[in-house]
Amino acid sequence: MKQRQSGRATFLPLDVIRPRNMSDSDRRLLQQAEGFIGIASELVQTDAKYENIVSSMLGNVIVSESLEQANKIASRLQYRYRVVTRDGDIVNAGGSMTGGSLQKKSSSLLGRQRQLEELESEIKNAEAMRDSAKAEAEDFKKELAETAQNIEQLREQGEKERMNEQQVAAERQQLIQEERQLQEQQSALSGEKAAFDAEAGGLDSVRSEAEARLASLTEDEQRMQNRIREAEELRRRSQSEKEQLQGALTDLKVSIARLEQDRSALDEQAMRRRADLSRLTAERKQLQEGLEQNETEASRTSQESVDQKERLNELRLQKKQLTENIEFKRADRAEKLRDLELKESETKEQRTKLKTVEEGLRQAEISVNRLDVELDNLLRKLSEEYEIGFELAKERYEIPEDIAGTQNEVRDMKRKISSLGDVNVGAIEEYKRVSERFQFLSEQENDLIEAKTKLHGIIREMDDEMSKRFRTTFEDIRKHFVVVFSRMFGGGRADLILSEPDRPLDTGIDIVAQPPGKKLQNLQLLSGGERALTAIALLFAILNVKPVPFCVLDEVEAALDEANVTRYAQYMREFSDSTQFIVVTHRKGTMEEADVLYGVTMEEGGVSKLVSVRLEESDEIMTATA
Question: For 24-98, which CATH class?
Fold first, then answer.
Protein backbone atom coordinates (compact mmCIF):
# COMPACT_ATOMS: atom_id res chain seq x y z
CA MET A 1 0.00 0.00 0.00
CA LYS A 2 2.97 2.35 0.60
CA GLN A 3 4.50 1.57 -2.79
CA ARG A 4 1.21 2.10 -4.65
CA GLN A 5 -0.02 4.91 -2.35
CA SER A 6 -3.30 3.08 -1.87
CA GLY A 7 -4.09 4.52 1.56
CA ARG A 8 -3.72 3.17 5.11
CA ALA A 9 -5.12 0.16 7.00
CA THR A 10 -5.43 -0.95 10.64
CA PHE A 11 -5.09 -4.62 11.69
CA LEU A 12 -6.86 -5.97 14.80
CA PRO A 13 -5.28 -9.31 15.94
CA LEU A 14 -7.94 -11.60 17.43
CA ASP A 15 -5.46 -13.09 19.95
CA VAL A 16 -4.32 -9.68 21.26
CA ILE A 17 -7.39 -7.42 21.40
CA ARG A 18 -9.17 -7.52 24.78
CA PRO A 19 -12.82 -6.47 25.39
CA ARG A 20 -13.79 -3.27 27.21
CA ASN A 21 -16.88 -3.14 29.42
CA MET A 22 -18.59 -0.58 31.64
CA SER A 23 -18.97 -1.05 35.38
CA ASP A 24 -22.35 -2.04 36.83
CA SER A 25 -22.68 1.28 38.66
CA ASP A 26 -22.24 3.25 35.42
CA ARG A 27 -24.81 1.01 33.70
CA ARG A 28 -27.33 1.73 36.48
CA LEU A 29 -26.76 5.46 36.01
CA LEU A 30 -27.30 5.08 32.25
CA GLN A 31 -30.59 3.21 32.70
CA GLN A 32 -31.97 6.23 34.58
CA ALA A 33 -30.70 8.81 32.04
CA GLU A 34 -33.12 10.47 29.61
CA GLY A 35 -32.48 9.80 25.92
CA PHE A 36 -30.26 6.73 26.54
CA ILE A 37 -30.53 4.20 23.68
CA GLY A 38 -27.86 1.65 24.58
CA ILE A 39 -24.19 0.65 24.48
CA ALA A 40 -22.82 0.63 20.92
CA SER A 41 -21.26 -2.85 21.29
CA GLU A 42 -24.71 -4.25 22.26
CA LEU A 43 -26.54 -2.59 19.34
CA VAL A 44 -24.51 -4.33 16.58
CA GLN A 45 -24.54 -7.95 15.46
CA THR A 46 -21.45 -9.94 14.51
CA ASP A 47 -19.96 -13.43 14.59
CA ALA A 48 -18.96 -14.79 17.99
CA LYS A 49 -15.24 -14.82 17.10
CA TYR A 50 -15.32 -11.02 16.53
CA GLU A 51 -17.00 -10.15 19.87
CA ASN A 52 -13.69 -9.07 21.48
CA ILE A 53 -13.02 -6.70 18.55
CA VAL A 54 -16.49 -5.13 18.77
CA SER A 55 -16.32 -4.86 22.57
CA SER A 56 -12.82 -3.29 22.42
CA MET A 57 -13.85 -0.64 19.89
CA LEU A 58 -17.48 0.03 20.99
CA GLY A 59 -17.68 -1.24 24.59
CA ASN A 60 -17.13 2.27 26.01
CA VAL A 61 -19.33 4.12 23.45
CA ILE A 62 -22.84 5.25 24.53
CA VAL A 63 -25.64 6.02 22.02
CA SER A 64 -28.22 8.74 22.81
CA GLU A 65 -31.06 10.50 21.01
CA SER A 66 -29.83 14.13 20.80
CA LEU A 67 -26.74 16.23 21.51
CA GLU A 68 -28.37 17.90 24.54
CA GLN A 69 -29.18 14.51 26.08
CA ALA A 70 -25.66 13.30 25.22
CA ASN A 71 -24.21 16.24 27.19
CA LYS A 72 -26.36 15.36 30.20
CA ILE A 73 -25.33 11.69 30.06
CA ALA A 74 -21.63 12.61 29.74
CA SER A 75 -21.94 15.01 32.70
CA ARG A 76 -23.60 12.33 34.82
CA LEU A 77 -20.70 9.94 34.07
CA GLN A 78 -18.12 12.75 34.70
CA TYR A 79 -17.07 12.77 31.00
CA ARG A 80 -15.30 9.38 31.26
CA TYR A 81 -16.95 7.82 28.15
CA ARG A 82 -17.66 8.83 24.55
CA VAL A 83 -21.35 9.58 23.79
CA VAL A 84 -22.66 9.68 20.18
CA THR A 85 -26.07 10.66 18.78
CA ARG A 86 -28.18 9.40 15.90
CA ASP A 87 -27.18 12.49 13.88
CA GLY A 88 -23.46 11.74 14.25
CA ASP A 89 -22.64 14.34 16.93
CA ILE A 90 -20.00 13.21 19.45
CA VAL A 91 -19.26 14.17 23.07
CA ASN A 92 -15.72 12.88 23.62
CA ALA A 93 -14.22 11.69 26.89
CA GLY A 94 -13.04 14.79 28.73
CA GLY A 95 -15.90 17.02 27.50
CA SER A 96 -14.91 18.07 23.95
CA MET A 97 -17.69 17.90 21.31
CA THR A 98 -17.63 17.10 17.59
CA GLY A 99 -20.51 17.89 15.24
CA GLY A 100 -21.71 19.82 12.24
CA SER A 101 -22.08 18.93 8.58
CA LEU A 102 -19.74 16.46 6.83
CA GLN A 103 -20.42 17.86 3.34
CA LYS A 104 -17.65 19.86 1.74
CA LYS A 105 -18.60 21.64 -1.47
CA SER A 106 -15.17 22.87 -2.41
CA SER A 107 -11.64 22.30 -1.26
CA SER A 108 -9.81 25.10 0.54
CA LEU A 109 -6.84 26.97 -0.80
CA LEU A 110 -4.50 24.99 1.48
CA GLY A 111 -6.05 21.72 0.24
CA ARG A 112 -5.45 22.71 -3.38
CA GLN A 113 -1.88 23.67 -2.55
CA ARG A 114 -1.37 20.24 -0.96
CA GLN A 115 -2.79 18.53 -4.08
CA LEU A 116 -0.41 20.51 -6.29
CA GLU A 117 2.52 19.47 -4.07
CA GLU A 118 1.43 15.81 -4.33
CA LEU A 119 1.23 16.11 -8.12
CA GLU A 120 4.74 17.60 -8.21
CA SER A 121 5.97 14.73 -6.04
CA GLU A 122 4.39 12.16 -8.40
CA ILE A 123 5.97 13.85 -11.42
CA LYS A 124 9.38 13.78 -9.72
CA ASN A 125 8.89 10.08 -8.93
CA ALA A 126 8.04 9.39 -12.58
CA GLU A 127 11.16 11.27 -13.72
CA ALA A 128 13.25 9.34 -11.20
CA MET A 129 11.85 6.04 -12.50
CA ARG A 130 12.61 7.14 -16.06
CA ASP A 131 16.21 8.01 -15.11
CA SER A 132 16.46 4.68 -13.32
CA ALA A 133 15.34 2.90 -16.49
CA LYS A 134 18.02 4.77 -18.47
CA ALA A 135 20.69 3.84 -15.94
CA GLU A 136 19.65 0.19 -16.01
CA ALA A 137 19.84 0.24 -19.82
CA GLU A 138 23.41 1.62 -19.67
CA ASP A 139 24.39 -1.04 -17.13
CA PHE A 140 22.91 -3.65 -19.45
CA LYS A 141 25.12 -2.47 -22.34
CA LYS A 142 28.27 -2.48 -20.17
CA GLU A 143 27.58 -5.98 -18.86
CA LEU A 144 27.08 -7.29 -22.40
CA ALA A 145 30.48 -5.82 -23.45
CA GLU A 146 32.19 -7.82 -20.67
CA THR A 147 30.74 -11.16 -21.88
CA ALA A 148 33.76 -12.06 -24.05
CA GLN A 149 36.15 -11.80 -21.03
CA ASN A 150 34.27 -13.96 -18.51
CA ILE A 151 31.95 -16.77 -19.67
CA GLU A 152 30.55 -17.44 -16.22
CA GLN A 153 29.70 -13.75 -15.79
CA LEU A 154 28.04 -13.83 -19.20
CA ARG A 155 25.65 -16.56 -18.06
CA GLU A 156 24.75 -14.71 -14.86
CA GLN A 157 24.56 -11.37 -16.66
CA GLY A 158 22.25 -12.79 -19.34
CA GLU A 159 19.87 -13.93 -16.62
CA LYS A 160 20.08 -10.54 -14.94
CA GLU A 161 19.37 -8.76 -18.23
CA ARG A 162 16.23 -10.85 -18.76
CA MET A 163 15.04 -9.75 -15.33
CA ASN A 164 15.91 -6.14 -16.13
CA GLU A 165 14.01 -6.42 -19.41
CA GLN A 166 10.91 -7.60 -17.56
CA GLN A 167 11.34 -4.83 -15.03
CA VAL A 168 11.69 -2.22 -17.81
CA ALA A 169 8.51 -3.52 -19.42
CA ALA A 170 6.70 -3.39 -16.10
CA GLU A 171 8.00 0.10 -15.45
CA ARG A 172 6.95 1.13 -18.95
CA GLN A 173 3.42 -0.08 -18.22
CA GLN A 174 3.54 1.77 -14.91
CA LEU A 175 4.71 4.94 -16.67
CA ILE A 176 1.81 4.62 -19.14
CA GLN A 177 -0.59 4.21 -16.22
CA GLU A 178 0.93 7.17 -14.39
CA GLU A 179 0.70 9.22 -17.61
CA ARG A 180 -3.00 8.38 -17.76
CA GLN A 181 -3.38 9.43 -14.10
CA LEU A 182 -1.53 12.69 -14.80
CA GLN A 183 -3.90 13.40 -17.67
CA GLU A 184 -6.86 12.85 -15.35
CA GLN A 185 -5.26 15.11 -12.77
CA GLN A 186 -4.68 17.73 -15.49
CA SER A 187 -8.38 17.72 -16.25
CA ALA A 188 -9.07 18.02 -12.52
CA LEU A 189 -6.64 20.94 -12.36
CA SER A 190 -8.52 22.64 -15.17
CA GLY A 191 -11.65 22.46 -13.06
CA GLU A 192 -9.73 23.78 -10.09
CA LYS A 193 -8.44 26.66 -12.19
CA ALA A 194 -12.01 27.69 -12.85
CA ALA A 195 -12.62 27.52 -9.10
CA PHE A 196 -9.47 29.60 -8.58
CA ASP A 197 -10.79 32.22 -11.02
CA ALA A 198 -14.05 32.35 -9.08
CA GLU A 199 -12.13 32.66 -5.85
CA ALA A 200 -10.05 35.49 -7.37
CA GLY A 201 -13.29 37.32 -8.07
CA GLY A 202 -14.22 36.79 -4.43
CA LEU A 203 -10.85 38.20 -3.42
CA ASP A 204 -11.55 41.30 -5.52
CA SER A 205 -14.82 41.79 -3.66
CA VAL A 206 -12.98 41.30 -0.36
CA ARG A 207 -10.46 43.91 -1.49
CA SER A 208 -13.27 46.33 -2.31
CA GLU A 209 -14.76 45.76 1.12
CA ALA A 210 -11.31 46.30 2.67
CA GLU A 211 -10.88 49.56 0.76
CA ALA A 212 -14.30 50.70 1.90
CA ARG A 213 -13.44 49.79 5.44
CA LEU A 214 -10.12 51.64 5.05
CA ALA A 215 -11.99 54.76 3.93
CA SER A 216 -14.27 54.40 6.94
CA LEU A 217 -11.25 53.99 9.19
CA THR A 218 -9.69 57.10 7.62
CA GLU A 219 -12.84 59.07 8.40
CA ASP A 220 -12.77 57.71 11.95
CA GLU A 221 -9.12 58.74 12.18
CA GLN A 222 -10.02 62.28 10.98
CA ARG A 223 -12.78 62.47 13.55
CA MET A 224 -10.39 61.28 16.24
CA GLN A 225 -7.82 63.87 15.18
CA ASN A 226 -10.53 66.53 15.49
CA ARG A 227 -11.27 65.22 18.95
CA ILE A 228 -7.54 65.43 19.76
CA ARG A 229 -7.48 69.07 18.65
CA GLU A 230 -10.51 69.77 20.80
CA ALA A 231 -8.78 68.07 23.72
CA GLU A 232 -5.71 70.26 23.19
CA GLU A 233 -7.91 73.38 23.26
CA LEU A 234 -9.46 72.15 26.48
CA ARG A 235 -5.96 71.63 27.90
CA ARG A 236 -5.10 75.28 27.09
CA ARG A 237 -8.31 76.46 28.70
CA SER A 238 -7.81 74.62 31.98
CA GLN A 239 -4.42 73.42 33.22
CA SER A 240 -6.08 71.73 36.19
CA GLU A 241 -7.71 69.10 33.87
CA LYS A 242 -4.39 68.09 32.29
CA GLU A 243 -4.15 64.69 33.94
CA GLN A 244 -7.72 63.68 32.99
CA LEU A 245 -7.31 64.68 29.33
CA GLN A 246 -3.92 62.94 29.11
CA GLY A 247 -5.57 59.58 29.83
CA ALA A 248 -8.21 60.16 27.13
CA LEU A 249 -5.50 61.18 24.63
CA THR A 250 -3.55 57.99 25.30
CA ASP A 251 -6.66 55.86 24.65
CA LEU A 252 -7.29 57.64 21.37
CA LYS A 253 -3.68 57.04 20.24
CA VAL A 254 -3.99 53.36 21.05
CA SER A 255 -7.20 53.15 18.99
CA ILE A 256 -5.51 54.93 16.05
CA ALA A 257 -2.55 52.53 16.18
CA ARG A 258 -4.94 49.57 16.25
CA LEU A 259 -6.85 50.88 13.23
CA GLU A 260 -3.57 51.44 11.33
CA GLN A 261 -2.55 47.87 12.07
CA ASP A 262 -5.95 46.59 10.82
CA ARG A 263 -5.51 48.55 7.58
CA SER A 264 -1.96 47.19 7.09
CA ALA A 265 -3.18 43.64 7.76
CA LEU A 266 -5.95 43.98 5.16
CA ASP A 267 -3.45 45.28 2.55
CA GLU A 268 -1.05 42.43 3.25
CA GLN A 269 -3.87 39.88 3.04
CA ALA A 270 -4.94 41.18 -0.39
CA MET A 271 -1.31 41.05 -1.65
CA ARG A 272 -0.95 37.46 -0.41
CA ARG A 273 -4.15 36.46 -2.23
CA ARG A 274 -2.86 37.92 -5.52
CA ALA A 275 0.55 36.26 -5.06
CA ASP A 276 -1.11 32.86 -4.37
CA LEU A 277 -3.17 33.17 -7.58
CA SER A 278 -0.04 33.98 -9.66
CA ARG A 279 1.89 31.09 -8.12
CA LEU A 280 -0.90 28.58 -8.80
CA THR A 281 -1.09 29.71 -12.45
CA ALA A 282 2.68 29.24 -12.90
CA GLU A 283 2.57 25.81 -11.25
CA ARG A 284 -0.23 24.67 -13.60
CA LYS A 285 1.90 25.72 -16.59
CA GLN A 286 4.87 23.74 -15.23
CA LEU A 287 2.70 20.66 -14.78
CA GLN A 288 1.56 20.81 -18.41
CA GLU A 289 5.17 21.10 -19.62
CA GLY A 290 6.15 18.13 -17.43
CA LEU A 291 3.37 16.01 -18.98
CA GLU A 292 4.62 16.78 -22.50
CA GLN A 293 8.18 15.80 -21.53
CA ASN A 294 6.93 12.52 -20.04
CA GLU A 295 5.16 11.64 -23.30
CA THR A 296 8.39 12.27 -25.28
CA GLU A 297 10.48 10.19 -22.88
CA ALA A 298 7.95 7.32 -22.95
CA SER A 299 8.14 7.06 -26.79
CA ARG A 300 11.95 7.17 -26.71
CA THR A 301 12.04 4.47 -24.01
CA SER A 302 9.86 2.19 -26.17
CA GLN A 303 12.30 2.51 -29.12
CA GLU A 304 15.27 1.77 -26.86
CA SER A 305 13.51 -1.38 -25.59
CA VAL A 306 13.14 -2.68 -29.20
CA ASP A 307 16.86 -2.00 -29.89
CA GLN A 308 17.85 -3.81 -26.71
CA LYS A 309 15.84 -6.89 -27.72
CA GLU A 310 17.69 -7.08 -31.07
CA ARG A 311 21.03 -6.68 -29.33
CA LEU A 312 20.06 -9.45 -26.90
CA ASN A 313 19.37 -11.90 -29.75
CA GLU A 314 22.85 -11.19 -31.20
CA LEU A 315 24.46 -11.78 -27.86
CA ARG A 316 22.65 -15.11 -27.48
CA LEU A 317 24.26 -16.33 -30.75
CA GLN A 318 27.68 -15.22 -29.50
CA LYS A 319 26.99 -16.98 -26.21
CA LYS A 320 26.29 -20.27 -28.01
CA GLN A 321 29.61 -20.12 -29.89
CA LEU A 322 31.52 -19.28 -26.74
CA THR A 323 29.86 -22.18 -24.91
CA GLU A 324 31.21 -24.66 -27.51
CA ASN A 325 34.74 -23.24 -27.09
CA ILE A 326 34.42 -23.59 -23.34
CA GLU A 327 33.62 -27.31 -23.59
CA PHE A 328 36.92 -27.97 -25.47
CA LYS A 329 38.90 -25.94 -22.97
CA ARG A 330 37.26 -27.73 -20.05
CA ALA A 331 38.41 -31.14 -21.34
CA ASP A 332 42.02 -29.85 -21.61
CA ARG A 333 41.75 -28.34 -18.16
CA ALA A 334 40.53 -31.64 -16.64
CA GLU A 335 43.55 -33.54 -17.97
CA LYS A 336 45.95 -30.96 -16.53
CA LEU A 337 44.14 -31.08 -13.19
CA ARG A 338 44.70 -34.88 -12.97
CA ASP A 339 48.46 -34.41 -13.43
CA LEU A 340 48.46 -31.64 -10.83
CA GLU A 341 46.65 -33.88 -8.30
CA LEU A 342 49.31 -36.62 -8.63
CA LYS A 343 52.11 -34.13 -7.97
CA GLU A 344 50.21 -32.59 -5.04
CA SER A 345 49.80 -36.02 -3.40
CA GLU A 346 53.57 -36.61 -3.54
CA THR A 347 54.18 -33.14 -2.09
CA LYS A 348 51.75 -33.85 0.79
CA GLU A 349 53.67 -37.01 1.78
CA GLN A 350 56.96 -35.10 1.91
CA ARG A 351 55.36 -32.30 3.92
CA THR A 352 54.01 -34.84 6.44
CA LYS A 353 57.49 -36.29 7.03
CA LEU A 354 59.00 -32.82 7.39
CA LYS A 355 56.30 -31.86 9.88
CA THR A 356 57.09 -34.95 12.02
CA VAL A 357 60.78 -34.05 12.18
CA GLU A 358 60.01 -30.41 13.05
CA GLU A 359 57.66 -31.52 15.86
CA GLY A 360 60.41 -33.71 17.43
CA LEU A 361 62.91 -30.85 17.22
CA ARG A 362 60.43 -28.47 18.88
CA GLN A 363 59.81 -30.89 21.79
CA ALA A 364 63.56 -31.19 22.36
CA GLU A 365 63.97 -27.42 22.46
CA ILE A 366 61.13 -27.15 25.00
CA SER A 367 62.82 -29.73 27.25
CA VAL A 368 66.16 -27.89 27.09
CA ASN A 369 64.48 -24.55 27.92
CA ARG A 370 62.64 -26.07 30.88
CA LEU A 371 65.89 -27.55 32.30
CA ASP A 372 67.64 -24.18 31.88
CA VAL A 373 64.86 -22.47 33.85
CA GLU A 374 65.07 -25.04 36.66
CA LEU A 375 68.87 -24.66 36.81
CA ASP A 376 68.54 -20.85 37.04
CA ASN A 377 66.00 -21.16 39.84
CA LEU A 378 68.24 -23.50 41.82
CA LEU A 379 71.30 -21.26 41.43
CA ARG A 380 69.28 -18.19 42.51
CA LYS A 381 67.92 -20.06 45.54
CA LEU A 382 71.46 -21.15 46.51
CA SER A 383 72.66 -17.57 46.29
CA GLU A 384 69.73 -15.94 48.12
CA GLU A 385 69.04 -18.43 50.89
CA TYR A 386 72.54 -19.77 51.61
CA GLU A 387 74.63 -16.83 50.33
CA ILE A 388 77.09 -19.10 48.53
CA GLY A 389 77.96 -19.67 44.91
CA PHE A 390 77.79 -22.95 42.97
CA GLU A 391 81.57 -23.41 42.62
CA LEU A 392 82.24 -22.74 46.36
CA ALA A 393 79.43 -25.08 47.41
CA LYS A 394 80.81 -27.78 45.14
CA GLU A 395 84.24 -27.47 46.83
CA ARG A 396 83.04 -27.31 50.47
CA TYR A 397 80.12 -29.70 50.55
CA GLU A 398 79.62 -33.15 49.11
CA ILE A 399 76.34 -34.24 47.59
CA PRO A 400 74.30 -35.99 50.37
CA GLU A 401 73.12 -39.51 49.81
CA ASP A 402 69.68 -38.88 51.40
CA ILE A 403 68.55 -35.67 49.70
CA ALA A 404 64.99 -35.78 51.11
CA GLY A 405 66.21 -36.21 54.73
CA THR A 406 68.71 -33.38 54.35
CA GLN A 407 65.94 -31.05 53.05
CA ASN A 408 63.78 -31.88 56.11
CA GLU A 409 66.66 -31.05 58.48
CA VAL A 410 67.18 -27.68 56.74
CA ARG A 411 63.46 -26.84 57.09
CA ASP A 412 63.51 -27.69 60.83
CA MET A 413 66.51 -25.47 61.42
CA LYS A 414 64.87 -22.55 59.56
CA ARG A 415 61.69 -22.92 61.57
CA LYS A 416 63.58 -22.82 64.88
CA ILE A 417 65.51 -19.70 63.85
CA SER A 418 62.27 -17.97 62.81
CA SER A 419 60.61 -18.80 66.14
CA LEU A 420 63.32 -16.90 68.02
CA GLY A 421 62.30 -13.63 66.33
CA ASP A 422 64.23 -10.39 66.13
CA VAL A 423 65.92 -8.83 69.16
CA ASN A 424 64.25 -5.42 69.89
CA VAL A 425 66.71 -3.29 71.90
CA GLY A 426 64.36 -0.23 71.89
CA ALA A 427 61.31 -1.93 73.45
CA ILE A 428 61.47 0.11 76.72
CA GLU A 429 61.52 3.48 74.97
CA GLU A 430 58.80 2.31 72.59
CA TYR A 431 56.57 1.28 75.54
CA LYS A 432 56.99 4.69 77.23
CA ARG A 433 56.09 6.54 74.02
CA VAL A 434 53.06 4.35 73.29
CA SER A 435 51.82 4.70 76.90
CA GLU A 436 51.88 8.51 76.70
CA ARG A 437 50.11 8.38 73.37
CA PHE A 438 47.42 6.07 74.77
CA GLN A 439 46.78 8.37 77.77
CA PHE A 440 46.47 11.43 75.46
CA LEU A 441 44.04 9.67 73.11
CA SER A 442 41.96 8.43 76.08
CA GLU A 443 41.51 12.01 77.32
CA GLN A 444 40.56 13.14 73.82
CA GLU A 445 38.01 10.31 73.56
CA ASN A 446 36.40 11.32 76.87
CA ASP A 447 36.15 14.96 75.70
CA LEU A 448 34.55 13.88 72.40
CA ILE A 449 32.04 11.62 74.16
CA GLU A 450 31.06 14.48 76.51
CA ALA A 451 30.70 16.92 73.58
CA LYS A 452 28.65 14.34 71.66
CA THR A 453 26.29 13.93 74.60
CA LYS A 454 25.80 17.71 74.86
CA LEU A 455 25.22 18.04 71.10
CA HIS A 456 22.59 15.27 71.13
CA GLY A 457 20.83 17.07 73.98
CA ILE A 458 20.84 20.38 72.05
CA ILE A 459 19.58 18.61 68.90
CA ARG A 460 16.73 17.01 70.85
CA GLU A 461 15.78 20.40 72.33
CA MET A 462 15.86 21.97 68.83
CA ASP A 463 13.80 19.10 67.38
CA ASP A 464 11.23 19.48 70.16
CA GLU A 465 11.01 23.24 69.63
CA MET A 466 10.83 22.84 65.82
CA SER A 467 8.15 20.12 66.15
CA LYS A 468 6.15 22.33 68.50
CA ARG A 469 6.35 25.35 66.19
CA PHE A 470 5.62 23.21 63.14
CA ARG A 471 2.50 21.71 64.72
CA THR A 472 1.29 25.17 65.83
CA THR A 473 1.88 26.73 62.39
CA PHE A 474 0.42 23.69 60.61
CA GLU A 475 -2.79 23.81 62.64
CA ASP A 476 -3.14 27.56 61.99
CA ILE A 477 -2.64 27.10 58.23
CA ARG A 478 -5.01 24.14 58.26
CA LYS A 479 -7.81 26.18 59.90
CA HIS A 480 -7.39 29.07 57.47
CA PHE A 481 -7.12 26.69 54.50
CA VAL A 482 -10.54 25.19 55.27
CA VAL A 483 -12.12 28.66 55.30
CA VAL A 484 -10.27 30.02 52.24
CA PHE A 485 -10.99 26.84 50.20
CA SER A 486 -14.73 27.13 50.88
CA ARG A 487 -14.71 30.82 49.79
CA MET A 488 -12.66 30.15 46.66
CA PHE A 489 -14.83 27.25 45.47
CA GLY A 490 -18.12 28.70 46.67
CA GLY A 491 -18.61 25.67 48.92
CA GLY A 492 -17.07 22.25 49.44
CA ARG A 493 -14.43 21.37 51.98
CA ALA A 494 -10.72 20.55 52.12
CA ASP A 495 -8.12 19.49 54.66
CA LEU A 496 -4.36 19.09 55.20
CA ILE A 497 -3.26 15.68 56.54
CA LEU A 498 0.17 14.66 57.86
CA SER A 499 1.32 11.35 56.37
CA GLU A 500 3.44 10.58 59.52
CA PRO A 501 1.99 12.52 62.48
CA ASP A 502 4.45 10.92 64.94
CA ARG A 503 7.43 12.32 62.97
CA PRO A 504 6.52 15.97 62.27
CA LEU A 505 9.99 16.90 60.98
CA ASP A 506 10.08 14.06 58.41
CA THR A 507 6.40 13.80 57.56
CA GLY A 508 4.79 14.61 54.23
CA ILE A 509 1.62 16.68 53.83
CA ASP A 510 -1.33 15.36 51.79
CA ILE A 511 -3.99 17.74 50.45
CA VAL A 512 -7.50 16.28 50.18
CA ALA A 513 -10.24 18.36 48.64
CA GLN A 514 -13.95 18.04 47.93
CA PRO A 515 -15.15 20.69 45.45
CA PRO A 516 -18.93 21.27 45.37
CA GLY A 517 -20.71 18.32 43.81
CA LYS A 518 -17.74 15.91 44.00
CA LYS A 519 -16.47 13.32 46.45
CA LEU A 520 -13.52 13.81 48.79
CA GLN A 521 -10.31 12.83 46.95
CA ASN A 522 -6.57 13.45 46.74
CA LEU A 523 -5.26 16.60 45.03
CA GLN A 524 -3.69 14.55 42.19
CA LEU A 525 -7.17 13.30 41.15
CA LEU A 526 -8.61 16.79 40.59
CA SER A 527 -8.68 18.64 37.27
CA GLY A 528 -6.01 21.21 36.35
CA GLY A 529 -8.20 24.20 37.24
CA GLU A 530 -9.26 22.63 40.56
CA ARG A 531 -5.64 21.90 41.47
CA ALA A 532 -4.64 25.50 40.63
CA LEU A 533 -7.48 27.00 42.71
CA THR A 534 -6.62 24.66 45.64
CA ALA A 535 -2.98 25.80 45.48
CA ILE A 536 -4.13 29.45 45.48
CA ALA A 537 -6.31 28.76 48.52
CA LEU A 538 -3.31 27.23 50.32
CA LEU A 539 -1.19 30.30 49.42
CA PHE A 540 -3.74 32.69 50.93
CA ALA A 541 -4.03 30.46 54.02
CA ILE A 542 -0.26 30.73 54.53
CA LEU A 543 -0.42 34.52 54.04
CA ASN A 544 -3.16 34.70 56.68
CA VAL A 545 -0.84 32.99 59.17
CA LYS A 546 2.37 34.78 58.08
CA PRO A 547 1.65 38.04 56.18
CA VAL A 548 4.33 39.44 53.87
CA PRO A 549 4.85 43.05 52.64
CA PHE A 550 4.37 42.17 48.96
CA CYS A 551 3.71 39.10 46.80
CA VAL A 552 4.42 38.46 43.06
CA LEU A 553 1.99 36.15 41.19
CA ASP A 554 2.73 35.08 37.59
CA GLU A 555 -0.44 33.88 35.80
CA VAL A 556 -1.50 31.62 38.69
CA GLU A 557 -5.15 31.84 37.55
CA ALA A 558 -4.47 30.85 33.89
CA ALA A 559 -6.24 27.46 34.29
CA LEU A 560 -9.34 28.87 36.08
CA ASP A 561 -12.74 29.52 34.55
CA GLU A 562 -14.37 32.97 34.69
CA ALA A 563 -16.38 32.33 37.88
CA ASN A 564 -13.33 31.14 39.82
CA VAL A 565 -11.22 34.02 38.43
CA THR A 566 -13.77 36.48 39.79
CA ARG A 567 -13.75 34.88 43.27
CA TYR A 568 -9.93 34.75 43.25
CA ALA A 569 -9.62 38.44 42.26
CA GLN A 570 -12.19 39.61 44.83
CA TYR A 571 -10.46 37.69 47.64
CA MET A 572 -7.07 39.08 46.61
CA ARG A 573 -8.65 42.57 46.60
CA GLU A 574 -9.76 42.06 50.23
CA PHE A 575 -6.33 40.77 51.17
CA SER A 576 -4.52 43.78 49.58
CA ASP A 577 -4.98 45.84 52.77
CA SER A 578 -2.06 43.98 54.41
CA THR A 579 -0.07 42.77 51.36
CA GLN A 580 0.77 44.47 48.06
CA PHE A 581 0.24 42.12 45.09
CA ILE A 582 2.15 42.40 41.80
CA VAL A 583 0.20 40.21 39.33
CA VAL A 584 1.12 39.11 35.79
CA THR A 585 -2.16 38.16 34.09
CA HIS A 586 -4.17 38.03 30.86
CA ARG A 587 -7.55 37.44 32.55
CA LYS A 588 -10.15 40.20 32.44
CA GLY A 589 -11.59 39.42 35.89
CA THR A 590 -8.20 39.93 37.59
CA MET A 591 -7.61 43.22 35.74
CA GLU A 592 -10.98 44.58 36.86
CA GLU A 593 -9.97 44.30 40.55
CA ALA A 594 -6.50 45.91 40.10
CA ASP A 595 -5.62 49.42 41.25
CA VAL A 596 -3.02 50.11 38.53
CA LEU A 597 -2.55 48.46 35.12
CA TYR A 598 0.72 48.46 33.18
CA GLY A 599 0.83 47.39 29.53
CA VAL A 600 2.88 47.73 26.35
CA THR A 601 1.44 49.29 23.18
CA MET A 602 2.92 49.85 19.71
CA GLU A 603 1.98 53.22 18.21
CA GLU A 604 4.42 52.71 15.32
CA GLY A 605 5.78 49.56 13.75
CA GLY A 606 8.68 48.23 15.87
CA VAL A 607 8.38 50.98 18.53
CA SER A 608 6.99 49.85 21.89
CA LYS A 609 5.71 52.16 24.59
CA LEU A 610 4.77 51.55 28.22
CA VAL A 611 1.21 52.53 29.16
CA SER A 612 -0.07 52.78 32.74
CA VAL A 613 -3.65 53.29 33.93
CA ARG A 614 -4.81 54.04 37.46
CA LEU A 615 -8.31 52.64 37.70
CA GLU A 616 -9.36 54.83 40.66
CA GLU A 617 -8.51 57.92 38.56
CA SER A 618 -10.46 56.51 35.62
CA ASP A 619 -13.47 56.10 37.93
CA GLU A 620 -13.15 59.77 38.93
CA ILE A 621 -12.88 60.78 35.24
CA MET A 622 -16.01 58.77 34.37
CA THR A 623 -17.85 60.35 37.33
CA ALA A 624 -16.78 63.87 36.28
CA THR A 625 -17.78 63.21 32.66
CA ALA A 626 -21.17 61.90 33.73
Answer: alpha beta
